[in-house]
Specification:
Strand content: 25-35%
Structural class: alpha+beta
Number of strands: 18
Number of helices: 17
Shape: elongated
Largest sheet: 5 strands, mixed
Helix content: 25-40%
């Protein structure tokens, strides 16, 4: 068959063109997916690693990564430490003033420091009891607020209140206590180990059957102005700042601690004996001079701790070393000023050797006594722990104890507490008994010379009388009831006065007191006593101002 000459080129080769294009597309696809795919994956993986590295550097920055090598050299990083020879060569290029200053700096000693292992220190072996307990009583005037606090009542009117009180005075042997401590020499020389932290009282009362009740602690109420000056007891024995402030405050306030009034007396009976008068002046030393114990220190063998006891070469070095030793040895921040020990005046019958000791006078008051009762007291003191927080003390309980309590003293003498009203049996007429009444009120005595009463009846008596309160005279209804019941009168009783040679005829009053005990009064004795007391109370100095005074003003006036 003849060829068709009219057909075009594309018409003739269209199939070949399509086949060639398909081959080109296939080859390009194979090249892309097989040859070029692997480099693309590597680029993506490197990009992810760089992103993670940047994130880690942001979270954990490092000066080594942030600085270049030149910057590190400028800052002195990676340089070796300058030797003494290099420093000396460098000084040659410095000004003369710098060279002279370098020569003034002392050279460091090449001798090695000797480490001294501290031996175990045991807590004080014994805390002594107070000695020579004496008991006194008196009448006084205090604020009603303090009296309500003693009675644990919430009512506070702020008025004046008349009370009868008792007080105890004793002494504490400071010198003997130092001997009983048994501490190493440094604790005696560098510290103030005999610091009294508190004074306590306890009492027992005579029962109607003649026996004694059990011992009971005395309620202690401190006036606000005194409490403000005393440091607060630390809540945590491991709180060194609080404990040191407390201990230092106690050392400074030894006069208040050892002579602590447990209530504030605005006025005291001028004819009575006060605790302050019984105790004597506040003067004296806070602690004995511990240097007397240095001479009694046993000599150590030759060579033992020789380097540790090497003497300083100059007075300046001696002062510096002693100051450093005191600061290192004492756990308390405040060191009291040591004064020369004073010797107390010897009492009659006391041995002369006792005057070599230094004593601390301690006292305490009891404002909760009840009239008509008989009491007996004991006293004890607590002292500051001289080895508190010391590492050498292996006994943990003793190491962190803030204070050590001493034993109770021997019981003092018995003391019978009178009432605010004193009565005297001064006569009879018919079936009546005549009494003389004296009442202590607001710092003064009100005296009624004659109060008749019937046999078998309790005595109640009130009268409006002028009294002075705060320098102003007012009329007040005063209760003068002696709290007694008249039982009987024995007339014509033969009585021989003390020192007399013959008997006289007098009357005897039989009465029952507020506790129900039956007692007697002799007319001749009561008349004599009433005359004496009336004269003394009239001649007594006028009472001081009954307004409240601060503790600081009282101390100033005493000085």
């Amino acid at each position: 068959m003849a060829a068709d000459l009219t057909q075009s080129f594309m018409g003739k080769h269209v199939e070949k063109v399509i086949l060639a294009a398909a081959v080109v597309i296939f080859i390009a696809s194979v090249t892309w997916f097989v040859v070029l795919r692997e480099p693309q994956d590597q680029l993506l993986s490197q990009t992810r690693r760089l992103v993670r590295k940047v994130q880690e550097d942001v979270k954990n920055p490092s000066i080594d990564k942030a600085l270049t090598q030149d910057e590190r050299v400028k800052l002195g990083i990676d340089r070796s430490i300058t030797t003494a020879a290099q420093f000396g060569r460098t000084l040659n290029g410095l000004p003369a003033a710098w060279t002279a200053l370098a020569k003034m700096v002392p050279r460091q000693s090449t001798r090695k420091e000797e480490v001294i292992v501290l031996k175990e220190v045991k807590p004080p072996a014994e805390i002594l009891a107070v000695e020579g307990l004496r008991t006194v009583w008196g009448r006084g005037v205090t604020s009603d607020e303090v009296k309500m606090a003693l009675e644990k009542s919430a009512v506070k009117s702020g008025t004046l209140s008349d009370i009868v009180w008792a007080g105890c005075v004793a002494r504490f042997d400071l010198t003997e206590q130092l001997k009983r401590y048994g501490l190493p020499r440094k604790y005696i020389l560098d510290q103030s180990p005999v610091t009294i932290t508190k004074v306590e009282l306890r009492r027992r009362e005579r029962k109607p059957d003649g026996g004694w009740s059990g011992w009971k602690g005395v309620t202690t109420v401190v006036p606000p102005d005194v409490a403000d000056e005393l440091p607060a007891f630390p809540a945590d024995a491991n709180d060194k700042l609080a404990v040191r402030a407390w201990g230092g405050g106690l050392i400074k306030a030894q006069a208040e601690v050892r002579r602590m009034p447990f209530y504030e007396l605005l006025v005291t009976d001028p004819e009575g004996k006060t605790v302050e008068a019984e105790a004597g002046p506040i003067g004296g030393v806070a602690n004995p001079d511990p240097s007397v114990f240095a001479e009694k220190e046993p000599a150590k063998p030759a060579g033992e701790n020789a380097s540790a006891e090497r003497k300083p070469t100059s007075a300046k070095e001696e002062t510096a070393s002693k100051t450093a030793a005191d600061a290192a040895a004492s756990p308390w921040l405040v060191t009291p000023t040591r004064r020369k020990p004073t010797k107390p005046e010897p009492t009659p019958g006391e041995e002369t050797a006792a005057t070599e000791h230094v004593y601390a006078t301690v006292w305490a008051n009891d404002g909760t006594v009840q009239p008509g009762k008989t009491y007996q007291y004991q006293m004890r003191v607590a002292v500051l722990n001289p080895v508190w927080s010391r590492l050498e003390v292996k006994d943990e309980q003793a190491r962190w104890a803030l204070q050590f309590e001493g034993p109770w003293s021997e019981p003092g003498e018995e003391v019978a507490i009178p009432g605010l009203v004193a009565f005297y049996f001064v006569g009879t007429f018919g079936q009546r008994v005549n009494l003389e009444l004296h009442r202590w009120i607001h710092g003064q005595w009100i005296m009624i010379p004659s109060v008749p009463t019937l046999l078998g009846a309790p005595v109640f008596y009130t009268k409006r009388v002028p009294i002075s309160v705060g320098g102003e005279e007012i009329t007040k209804e005063v209760d003068l009831s002696p709290q007694m019941l008249v039982v009987d009168v024995v007339k014509g009783f033969p009585y021989k006065p003390a020192g007399g040679n013959r008997s006289i005829s007098t009357n005897v009053l039989v009465y029952a007191d507020a506790r129900g005990s039956v007692r007697e009064r002799i007319e001749w004795e009561d008349r004599t006593r009433a005359t004496k007391d009336r004269r003394r109370r009239k001649e007594a100095a006028p009472p001081p101002e009954t307004g409240r005074r601060s503790k600081r003003s009282k101390r100033t006036s005493k000085r």
